[in-house]
């Protein structure tokens, strides 16, 4: 590619060049046929913007407030795992990029920098995403560490009782570089499980096999005594061994009992679940299909946003993620009722291409595109963006009838 990247797709190409194939595939991939993966992006293309003209757009204000935090634009960093696979500075670089652009940083439970490192690296407003482990005590400790380190909310990811089937990862037998470990987990294990304090976490692989003895991970197929790594995705195996597939609605009560932080629930795709989430007392909903990495043939996220927004009736803010690659996508999601969007892969592409600078450039690019979209649509503030600014495919179809 000649010159500097001018859009997210060009950053994706730089990331492809920068990363070992195994990691690039992990970051970009979706589940099974990757039908939903394509639809997440394609469905945005089928929504048309209805611009208004002759509005004074000489001043555009993109800022908004998310759970009481003022932010420069309705954009957050989605929690995504293991940023050190993309860049040696990992989540610290991502958080600094977010801080530089004055947007909120979502930190993954499966991060390769600790909550303490991220907290001390910059002043980004940060939310902490959790998976709930079979070992609830471990998850509780992670929540307390996030709380102690000034995180502003807990994002409970609720669409991952098991990891989706990502076939590239299976083929690649995706594994993690031996210099990298889930630092958050390491520190946590040392802190709360004195019995295994003596263990050396030299490599992630040895971490896996050692921790297996504590029955947190079950990386060994007991019938053949072969590690799963010989068979398929190590990341899937990690999730299978640690994530609590019995997690259900009543557990939100448990989460509320261990933290005062507001809880956002991530992974809602239906009005039924949106209503349950409100009944459970969450502070906000993230409409998400996990970047199409979980259930293939789940709906494209943008196609169900409005259903959820209607069910929620303004009781809590509704956030959106999935397939956002352009400022116009952000505009469309807001027009359909989202308070803000979370950006997953696009940020990783920036990180892989250029570290902190790349994260900053990707977010800035999306902000610039969004600002231009607002101006060309006749919207001066995010509150000016209304449902009448877009037409969905269904509405266009009805018009033709
Ligand atoms: C490589 C990768 C890792 C992810 N890891 C996590 C994670 O650790 N926790 C989580 O809740 N979601 C995770 N997600 C899902 C994102 O938070 C988000 O829902 C998704 O990336 C949004 O779609 P997009 O990538 O098209 O923007 C991950 C997504 C990707 C692509
Ligand atoms: C065990 C790590 C899971 C990270 C994740 O959520 C994803 O890859 O989508």
Automatic annotation (TrEMBL):
Molecular functions (GO terms): (S)-2-hydroxy-acid oxidase activity; FMN binding
Flavoprotein recorded as keyword: yes
The organism's place on the tree of life at top rank: Eukaryota
EC code: 1.1.3.15
Cofactor(s) in the UniProt record: FMN
CDD domains: alpha_hydroxyacid_oxid_FMN
Active site: 290 (proton acceptor)
A Pfam family: FMN_dh
Binding site for glyoxylate: 26, 131, 166, 290, 293
Location relative to the cell: Peroxisome
Keywords, in A-Z order: Flavoprotein, FMN, Oxidoreductase, Peroxisome
Domain (FMN hydroxy acid dehydrogenase) ranges: 1-395
Binding, FMN: 79-81, 108, 129, 157, 266, 288, 321-325, 344-345
Flavoprotein listed as a keyword: yes
GO cellular component: peroxisome
Family per record: Belongs to the FMN-dependent alpha-hydroxy acid dehydrogenase family.
Protein name in UniProt: (S)-2-hydroxy-acid oxidase
Classification of source organism: Eukaryota, Viridiplantae, Streptophyta, Embryophyta, Tracheophyta
């Amino acid at each position: 590619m000649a010159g500097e990247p001018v859009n997210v797709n060009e950053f994706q190409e730089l990331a492809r060049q920068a990363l070992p194939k195994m990691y690039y595939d992990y970051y970009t991939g979706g589940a099974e046929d990757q039908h939903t993966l394509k639809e997440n992006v394609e469905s945005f293309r089928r929504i048309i913007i209805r611009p208004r003209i002759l509005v004074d757009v000489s001043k555009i204000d993109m800022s908004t407030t998310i759970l009481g935090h003022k932010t420069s634009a309705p954009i957050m960093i989605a929690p995504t795992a293991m940023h050190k696979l993309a860049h040696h500075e990992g989540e610290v670089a991502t958080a600094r990029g977010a801080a530089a652009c004055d947007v909120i940083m979502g930190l993954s439970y499966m991060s390769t920098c600790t909550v303490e490192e991220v907290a001390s690296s910059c002043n980004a407003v940060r939310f902490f995403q959790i998976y709930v482990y079979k070992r609830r005590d471990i998850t509780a400790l992670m929540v307390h560490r996030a709380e102690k380190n000034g995180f502003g909310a807990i994002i409970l990811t609720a669409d991952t009782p098991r990891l989706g089937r990502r076939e590239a990862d299976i083929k690649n037998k995706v594994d993690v570089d031996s210099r990298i470990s889930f630092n958050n987990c390491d520190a946590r294990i040392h802190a709360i499980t004195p019995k295994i304090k003596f263990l050396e976490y030299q490599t992630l692989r040895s971490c896996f096999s050692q921790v297996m003895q504590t029955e947190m991970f079950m990386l060994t197929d007991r019938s053949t005594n072969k590690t799963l790594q010989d068979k398929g995705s190590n990341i899937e195996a990690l999730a299978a061994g640690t994530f609590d597939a019995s997690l259900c609605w009543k557990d939100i009560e448990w989460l509320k009992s261990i933290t005062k932080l507001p809880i956002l629930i991530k992974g809602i795709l239906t009005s039924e679940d949106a209503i349950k989430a409100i009944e459970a007392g969450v502070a906000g909903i993230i409409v998400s299909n996990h970047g199409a990495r979980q259930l293939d043939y789940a709906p494209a996220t943008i196609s169900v946003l409005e259903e959820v927004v209607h069910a929620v009736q303004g009781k809590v803010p509704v956030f959106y993620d999935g397939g956002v690659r352009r400022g116009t996508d952000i505009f469309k999601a807001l027009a359909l009722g989202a308070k803000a969007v979370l950006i997953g892969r696009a940020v990783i592409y920036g990180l892989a291409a250029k570290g902190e600078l790349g994260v900053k450039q990707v977010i800035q690019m999306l902000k610039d595109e969004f600002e231009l979209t607002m101006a060309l649509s006749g919207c001066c503030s995010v509150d000016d963006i209304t449902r009448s600014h877009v037409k969905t495919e269904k509405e266009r179809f009805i018009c033709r009838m």
